[in-house]
Specification:
Among the domains are: 146 residues; 176 residues. Helix content is 82%, strand content 0%. The chain has 10 helices and no strands. Keywords: Coiled coil. InterPro entries: IQ_motif_EF-hand-BS (IPR000048), P-loop_NTPase (IPR027417).
């Protein structure tokens, strides 16, 4: 087939297990002197360089083998594709028609035999390809191991080339780095633990905050309910206080009547005591007179009879005084019954509160209406002031414009009436009218208009300051404060006439 055979190469059949045995095992040997150690290290370095060169040659040979195997694989694939497209399919179709190759023609039989040989070769090539692929994987693994060995040997070479003090310091530094890395890992684990603890604490704090918020809302609701109950109790207390006031007002005349009765009883008691004393003295004198003349009724007897009648009446009054407590209880009961009847007839406290609120609202609305009417009057006064000022300003501007027009016309007329040639002393009024028209056209932007406007602005500023001061004085004396402030604002922005009768600020 023309493919290069791999059997001729001596390194192709070398076992991969025999390669690591060729690598010298480097053992650190302690030397007594520095010269011996340097010589030993130089020798080891040379050996290592030779070994590296051999490894590189082996890798190059393996790469060449891999390339050869890839080429063989490509050729096999090409042959397979050509035989599959050509007469390779013919024996399969023919073998179905003919039961044996003996009955086939010789050309077809030769083609079938060639196809069988090609298939056998294809199977052998496939086996070789799988074996080569396996060897390639093994060689790749060996190459990876060799590269690791090379790296290890390079590190050993570096260690051998350096002095032992540097190696010791490097080891110490490596140990320090490992310690720092270990501490860093511990710190990171502690940070993770603290972060988790913080998360749990925040969750717990949020839960406690939510509970506190719920408790706060419940307390607010309780406070609102308590406020409502307190308001209801306040209403009840107010209603009871009103009832107590009404009762006290109704009890005042009863107390006065009781005091008057007590005073009368005191006076009657004193009168009775005096009567008893008089009766005792009169009884002794009457007995003496009766013993002297028992048959003749004298004036003394008549007076004693009268005194007896009085005494009987006074005795009845004393009985009434003794029953005074019972009478007070009776009066109190009757007063309570009367108050109960009046309380039934009285309106409820809610209706009374509604009536009071309605009366207060009416009073408040009436006061508000009065205030609005007063403000409306003040605004009307300010509007009138503004209208008067605007009219006066317009009239003043018109008068100034007329004066400027008249001056311009007079100047043009004087120039026209100047002495000229003979026969031209008097002219018609046409130039005068043209001068008026010209002055009217030039007035808004001419020199006369600018002079008048500058003088007008100066007079306006002076008059505005004077009239604002006068309006403030008049407002502080008799005008409303709102109108005074409005007039001061108007005077600051517009010109106020000064010295004209019939207008604000004039005499």
């Amino acid at each position: 087939m023309g493919t290069p055979s791999r059997e001729g190469t001596p390194d192709a059949r070398a076992s991969p297990s025999s390669m690591p045995s060729q690598i010298p095992y480097l053992v650190p040997i302690k030397h007594r002197t520095n010269s011996g150690s340097t010589a030993r290290s130089i020798h080891l370095m040379h050996e290592l360089q030779e070994h590296l060169a051999s490894v590189e040659q082996l890798a190059a040979s393996r790469k060449a083998e891999l390339e050869c195997l890839r080429e063989e694989r490509r050729e096999l694939q090409r042959e397979k594709s050509t035989h599959s497209l050509g007469p390779a399919r013919l024996p399969q179709s023919v073998s179905g028609t003919f039961r044996s190759t003996e009955t086939l023609p010789p050309k077809l039989r030769a083609i079938i035999e060639d196809n069988k040989m090609l298939q056998h070769e294809l199977r052998s090539y496939k086996q070789k390809l799988t074996a080569s692929e396996l060897s390639m994987t093994v060689s790749n693994r060996q190459l990876a191991g060799l590269q690791q060995d090379i790296e290890r040997l390079k590190s050993q070479l570096k260690e051998c080339s350096r002095p032992p003090e540097v190696v010791a310091t490097d080891k110490q530094h490596a140990e320090v780095v490992e310690d720092f890395q270990r501490q860093l890992r511990d710190l990171r684990s502690q940070v993770a633990i603290h972060s988790k603890a913080r998360e749990t604490d925040t969750k717990r704090f949020k839960q406690t905050c939510q509970e506190h918020v719920k408790e706060k809302e419940e307390l607010k609701k309780e406070i609102e309910s308590l406020k409502a109950t307190i308001a209801e109790r306040d209403k009840e207390i107010r209603s009871q206080a009103l009832e107590v006031r009404l009762v006290t007002k109704q009890l005042d005349p009863l107390k006065r009547s009781l005091q008057e009765h007590r005073k009368r009883d005191e006076e009657e008691r004193r009168a009775l005591e005096l009567a008893e004393k008089a009766r005792a003295t009169a009884g002794t004198s009457h007995k003496a007179l009766a013993a002297a003349s028992p048959t003749v009724p004298t004036a003394v007897q008549q007076t004693s009879l009268r005194q007896r009648v009085l005494v009987q009446d006074r005795v009845q009054i004393m009985v009434c005084i003794i029953n005074q407590d019972a009478q007070e209880q009776f009066y109190l009961k009757s007063a309570e019954e009367r108050l109960a009847k009046e309380r039934r007839n009285l309106p409820k406290p809610e209706t009374a509160a509604i009536a009071i609120q309605a009366a207060f609202r009416g009073h408040f609305t009436r006061q508000d209406l009065k205030l609005q009417q007063r403000r409306h009057k003040q605004e009307l006064a300010v509007v009138k002031l503004q209208a008067g000022l605007r009219g006066w300003l317009a009239r003043r501007e018109v008068a100034a414009l007329r004066a400027s027009l008249e001056r311009a016309a007079m100047g043009s007329a004087a120039s026209d009436a100047a002495p000229g040639p003979a026969g031209k002393g008097r002219r018609s009024d046409v130039p005068r009218r043209s001068a008026f028209v010209k002055a009217g056209q030039d007035a808004p932007g001419g020199t006369a208009r600018t002079v008048v406007s500058t003088a007008k602005q100066a007079r306006r500023s002076v008059a505005a300051q004077q009239d604002a001061a006068s309006i403030q004085r008049t407002g502080s004396k008799g005008v409303e404060p709102g109108t005074a402030r409005a007039a001061s604002r108007i005077g600051a922005s517009h010109e106020v006439p000064s010295g004209r009768p019939g207008v604000l600020g004039g005499p």
